[in-house]
Amino acid sequence: MSQKILIVGAGFAGVWGALGAARVLDGAGVRSSDVEITLISPKPELQIRPRLYESEPQRMAAPLLPLFDAIGVKFVEGRAEEISVHDRTVSVVSENGQERSLAYDRLLLTSGSKLHRPPIPGLVEHAFSADCVEDAVELDKHLKELAKLPESPARNTVAVVGCGFTGIELATELPRRMRELFGADAAVRVVVIGSQDEIGPDLGPNPRPFVSEAFDSLGVEAVLGSGVVAVDADGVRTASGTRIEAGTVIWAGGMRASSLTAQVSSRLDPLGRVEVEPDLRVAEAPGVFVAGDVARALTDDNGRYALMSCQHAIVMGQFGGHNVAADLLGIPTLPYRQPFYATCLDLGEWGAVYSEGWDRQIKLTHAEGKARKQVINTQWIYPPAPNRAEALAAGNPQASFV
Q1: Torsion, CA 321, CA 325, CA 326, CA 330, rounded to 10
Q2: Interval 6-23: pLDDT, tens
Q3: Which of 125, 164, 166, 230 is least buried, going by the fewest C-beta atoms within 10 A?
Q4: Could you tell me how far CA 176 lies from the centroid of its own chain?
Q5: Are 313 and 291 in contact (CB under 8 A)?
Q6: Are the C-beta atoms of residues 90 and 8 closer than 8 Å to each other?
Q7: What DSSP letter does each residue of 297-320 carry, written as one string?
Q8: Which residues contact 221 (CB under 8 A, 6 or more apart)?
């Protein structure tokens, strides 16, 4: 009877986790009939989430079945609903509501994160997002429908709620997208709203002047220091009483880890991520490893923790996949380490700003930064070609991502 590795989630950590696990089995000469790797996800695709601020979001997904066929990974289409650590099973519900239980010997949880939507009146009913392909397509459709309406200040105004990474990239891309839809001479208005006193509070001081320069160049406004307390069909109201009339409200208010984390551990951080051991295992759940946005993992020996980003998810997935297979075969696991950190922030037609290090030392800006961002967005974060040798090599946790 074959042993079974289950991977929950087809995000960046899950896909590269599958590559990492398959690489270990291949290197050990283990046949797929002896150890099965199965990945569970609602769709056999990797949504390229970092690109969903761009136009044509329906193109931002990479098919996975050819890749999985090349490396001998099975795919189960469905949504993981329940994890029983005691029984070592995962309950999966298909799109038509059928439920099945899958057993595992080792589990790699990579179920990712979702946009956090607090209980603000009108938020769910009236705000759009770019959290997943489906949400981004809905936003794109809405903007195209607005273009059919008579021009007005409200029609031409977008309020982006959230002044972090996602909010900045959305806001700086929107002027171009709106002019393409509404006309080159349309008086478009994009307003970024944040409860913090500074734009990009987590970016630090080095990139911030370039963000401000891009905002000024593109005509993006910032309303800071007061959060949104109500959303309706015609705009938003902030805690300070400011009213912004907008035909489009986009919520970009931060992420929370998948709720499946609470089923494998009681040690969760404020974002819902599991506190993991150095090799990404869950101490209180034998046979369970966690990677990506659901893991609170140290990246180095200086107390730096991985962020909810594809940059960290890809490498953490490689380590998680390696370790879940290695542990099953009795091979020593590897401590997750990712000391190199870079940030590349797209700023629309202004360009982009690329920095390295946790202190974000600026390396490239404007057109040079944009060129680096395009390489990242169109090459580095995509899965490898469905060629077995190339795919298995991409699962190596000790190969540099950048």
Answers
A1: 160
A2: 999 999 999 999 999 999
A3: 125
A4: 24
A5: yes
A6: yes
A7: -B-STTSPBPPSSHHHHHHHHHHH
A8: 189, 190, 191, 192, 215
- Number of Cβ within a 10 Å radius of residue 293: 32
Q: Domain residues of the chain, as ranges?
A: 3-115+255-339+387-394, 134-251
Backbone torsion region of residue 247, taken as left when φ is above 0, otherwise alpha when ψ lies between -120 and 50, otherwise beta: alpha
Name the 3-class secondary structure at 248: strand
Helices 165-182/133-146 angle, 10° precision? 40
Q: 268: number of CA atoms within 13 Å, CB side?
A: 17
Mean pLDDT of all residues in 146-163:
95
Q: Binning pLDDT at 50, 70 and 90, where does residue 384 land?
A: very high
State CA 86 to chain mean position distance.
Answer: 30
Kindly indicate the confidence band of residue 400, based on its pLDDT and cuts at 50, 70 and 90.
low
CA 73 to chain CA centroid, nearest Å: 23
| Superfamily for the 3-115+255-339+387-394 domain | FAD/NAD(P)-binding domain (3.50.50.60)
**326 contacts: CB under 8 Å, gap ≥ 6:** 24, 332, 333, 334
pTM: predicted TM-score of the whole model, two decimal places = 0.96
